[in-house]
């Protein structure tokens, strides 16, 4: 069951007021990011699966209702309504793993106003976290140029829930495996891990530690930088000579120091010993910029373990994500606050391509038919998930890989795209906005003239 009370107080006070005032006609809310963070050329939509599960299962338990009643804030009408609540609305959304840009809806909720309002907080919570994480991970994967990226970040992610859902989002974005066992179990992900320095330190001799670990886990990765990295590599070579055909160690891990120089020297030592098949895994404070720098200088690194920077999206830890009313009772709605003017009405996004490369997006009214691929799809009807709305993670990862490959090269790069990827507004949507703005200003002027 969804956590019904994981919401903001004002969602319930507004619903209480809506019910008292009889405001229950059909409403449309749009969930979008107003503008991209400074170091993002795109975002990768993620979190729809959890959003749909929430909408399907949201119920208020007797304990929830009893506690709400104890606050003395809510009417009996609201409490009775919550007791029998089931979401009956529709959802249109872009598939997870789809690149999106500022002002473009990731999802739109259409349903009775009280229902569509109630779910705001949780939807933002889920889609924000996973979109943030997937967008960061996509940059790391891009920087790695096809080399595997492994998630090492759970210990510094922001709590237990993030430690699971961030890993899911990273996998959608192309991360190959995770060290997080619970996330791997829940989502069916490949697991990968090495050893900590403490294991080496617990032994009196580094070679003895390598020998013992390789005996228990023959195809392991050995951590070589506890004392002296290159001496550690030499001890791996010594172990290989000692074990002969029984040596099956797959990789060595470099976790500190000058990773460019150390990887080059490590590769030379391994190759000279005939250990060309032993790979080099690099970790330790990595982000997309450092991964890109290492590979730009031809570092012979075969895979990357990335933790904190990717796990918390350290350079862009939050998105300007909003969930706004855009239509009620058949009329477009917007706000006129400076810097936060909305586009009214339900929408569709059309992505135009040329020779297999995305060239521009057009934000349009939901019922327009324009050139390009429409991004938003109907995924829920009357509160029930539609067939095909929840593909397996492997399908989502493949979709993300293909969709990202269709973006222009300058948009996929780590540096800010100049100019940014173009997102234009259709003539019909522009006209609808002007009409709503004019009507709103006329009503505001009338209310001022007749206080």
Describe this structure in words.
- The protein has 451 residues and is an alpha/beta fold.
- It folds into two domains: 9-133 and 316-346 and 375-407, nicotinate phosphoribosyltransferase, CATH 3.20.140.10; 136-311, TIM Barrel.
- It is built from 17 helices and 19 strands.
- A seven-stranded antiparallel beta sheet has the order 13-12-1-5-3-17-18.
- The longest helix is centred in the first third of the chain and has 24 residues, at 120-143.
- The mean pLDDT is 97.
Summarize the structure.
Residues 373-430 form the Nicotinate phosphoribosyltransferase C-terminal domain. The protein has 451 residues and is an alpha/beta fold. The protein has helices at residues 9-21, 48-57, 62-70, 76-83, 113-118, 120-143, 160-172, 181-187, 197-201, 206-216, 229-243, 259-272, 288-296, 308-311, 393-405, 409-412, 427-449; strands spanning 26-33, 43-44, 90-93, 99-100, 105-112, 149-151, 177-178, 221-223, 251-254, 279-282, 303-306, 321-328, 331-332, 347-354, 357-365, 373-374, 377-381, 384-385, 423-425.
| Overall outline | elongated
What do we call the CATH topology of the largest domain?
nicotinate phosphoribosyltransferase
* Structural class based on helices, strands and sheet pairing: alpha/beta
Count every beta strand, where a strand is a DSSP E run of 2 or more residues.
19
Secondary-structure blueprint:
Blueprint: H1 9-21, E1 26-33, E2 43-44, H2 48-57, H3 62-70, H4 76-83, E3 90-93, E4 99-100, E5 105-112, H5 113-118, H6 120-143, E6 149-151, H7 160-172, E7 177-178, H8 181-187, H9 197-201, H10 206-216, E8 221-223, H11 229-243, E9 251-254, H12 259-272, E10 279-282, H13 288-296, E11 303-306, H14 308-311, E12 321-328, E13 331-332, E14 347-354, E15 357-365, E16 373-374, E17 377-381, E18 384-385, H15 393-405, H16 409-412, E19 423-425, H17 427-449
Parallel strand pairs: 6-7, 6-11, 8-9, 9-10, 10-11, 15-19
Antiparallel strand pairs: 1-5, 1-12, 2-4, 3-5, 3-17, 12-13, 14-15, 14-16, 17-18
């Amino acid at each position: 069951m969804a956590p019904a009370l994981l919401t903001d107080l004002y969602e319930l006070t507004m619903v209480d007021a809506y019910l008292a005032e009889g405001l229950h006609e059909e409403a449309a809310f749009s969930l979008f990011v107003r503008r991209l963070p400074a170091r993002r050329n795109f975002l990768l939509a993620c979190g729809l699966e959890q959003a749909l599960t929430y909408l399907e299962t949201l119920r208020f338990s007797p304990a929830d209702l009893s506690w709400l009643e104890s606050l003395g804030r809510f009417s009996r009408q609201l409490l009775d309504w919550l007791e029998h609540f089931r979401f009956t609305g529709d959802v249109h959304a872009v598939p997870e793993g789809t690149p999106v840009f500022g002002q473009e809806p990731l999802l739109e909720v259409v349903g009775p106003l009280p229902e569509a309002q109630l779910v705001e907080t949780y939807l933002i919570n889920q889609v924000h976290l996973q979109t943030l994480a997937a967008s960061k991970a996509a940059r790391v994967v891009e920087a790695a140029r096809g080399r595997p990226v492994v998630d090492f970040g759970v210990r510094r992610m922001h709590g237990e829930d993030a430690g699971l859902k961030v890993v899911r989002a990273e996998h959608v974005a192309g991360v190959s495996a995770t060290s997080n066992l619970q996330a791997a179990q829940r989502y069916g992900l490949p697991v990968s891990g090495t050893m900590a320095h403490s294991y080496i330190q617990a032994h009196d001799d580094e070679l003895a530690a390598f020998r013992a670990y390789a005996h228990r886990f023959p195809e392991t990765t050995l951590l070589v930088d506890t004392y002296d990295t290159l001496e550690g590599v030499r001890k791996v070579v010594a172990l290989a000579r000692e074990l002969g055909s029984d040596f099956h160690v797959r990789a060595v891990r470099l976790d500190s120091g000058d990773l460019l120089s150390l990887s080059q020297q490590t590769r030379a030592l391994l190759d000279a010993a005939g250990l060309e098949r032993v790979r080099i895994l690099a970790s330790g404070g990595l982000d997309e910029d450092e991964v890109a720098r290492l590979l730009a200088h031809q570092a012979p690194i075969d895979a990357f373990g990335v933790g904190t920077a990717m796990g918390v999206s350290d350079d862009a830890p939050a998105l300007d994500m909003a969930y706004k009313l855009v239509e009620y009772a058949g009329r477009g709605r917007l706000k006129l606050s400076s810097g936060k003017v909305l586009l009214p009405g339900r929408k569709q996004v059309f992505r135009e391509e040329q020779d297999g490369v995305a060239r521009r997006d057009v934000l349009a009214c939901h019922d327009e038919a324009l050139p390009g691929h429409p991004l938003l799809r109907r995924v829920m009807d009357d509160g029930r998930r539609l067939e095909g709305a929840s593909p397996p993670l492997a399908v989502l990862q493949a979709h993300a890989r293909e969709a990202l490959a269709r973006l222009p090269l300058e948009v996929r790069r780590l540096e800010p795209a100049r100019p940014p990827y173009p997102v234009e507004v259709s003539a019909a949507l522009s006209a609808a906005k002007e009409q709503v703005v004019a009507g709103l200003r006329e009503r505001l002027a009338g209310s001022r003239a007749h206080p």
